[in-house]
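During data preparation, we tokenized the protein backbone, and the record follows.
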Amino acid sequence: MNEKYSPRIGVISDDLTGAGDVGAQFAGRGLKAVISTGVESVKETPDGAEVWIINTNSRDISRNKAVKSVKKAVILLKAWNAEYFYKKIDSTLRGNLGAELEVFADELGAESIPFCAAFPDMGKTTIGGVHYVLGERLEETPYAKDTGCESCNSEIRKIIELQMKDSGRIDVKDAATNEDLENMSRGIKGNVFAGAAAFAGYLADSWLTANRKVQPIALSPGPVLVISGSLNPISLEQVKYWEENGSASIIAEDIKEPLDPAKDLLIKTPMLREEGILKKLNKAAYKLWTENKMDRVILNGGDTAYGFMAAAGIKTLNVVKSMAPGIALTEADKKYFILKSGGYGQTDALTSLSRLLGGR
């Protein structure tokens, strides 16, 4: 079978779990996808990467800071000679959506950007320009109440217009099924696109010429550290399920003595938030990780994932594969990290992922 031709694909994501999400789409097609965990720490281009994903960590920061971060990421990808550019967005349209799309379009001189926020495998669909989550209009879901969410309604163009002067440059596409995404991607022209992770995967199929073999990975048995800083209701139910099924958990501030390094452990934050709580969580988690030499970690929540990588000084991750829709397995220096958005997965997600990552 012929080897696929692989153009250089440059991707910008506004959070780290989203970077893993889109990276898994490319890795699942046999491409070497590499994540830079923070745009501010990029010093050089990744060796041998076919897909370079830069995390701007800009979902919950000010509009002006987000624009500067995306602009810097575009400049880096252009200098890397990327042939295709993709702006990964949150599939529930949170963050500085219009502002980031505007600077993305400006820096690349794009007059029209095909945009699709649908991710059918995760229950996210767009019909008639209106976005739905599990059949409900976006504005009627818990995501509409999240910090940074501009979803005062479910019409995508109106959400984009809140931060973008000329939203006509964004060509909003409908998709309700994977077949819709596949058909749309086949005939699409250009080299600048935006949307959720699923659209990127089907676009990759249209850019490549033959199937590539994906190398399997086998993990030997070992303990897993779960770090959960998300207060998303889905995430809280997953933590509750973990605890009710006999797995150990502890609040970061309650760690007073050495813990058993041979057992799975979930470390979490208190329910009541205070300033700097995630920093405290990641400091405690990093201490546990290094002292116990744990090489398998599940990071639950985008801010949690970014904070842990910063604490650990990890600037680059190799994307290995998808563990479940929207959830990626990554690697750095023979240590494995699952990147999971707080709102993703079934109730038993943390428990089942720990079994898979622990080689059980």
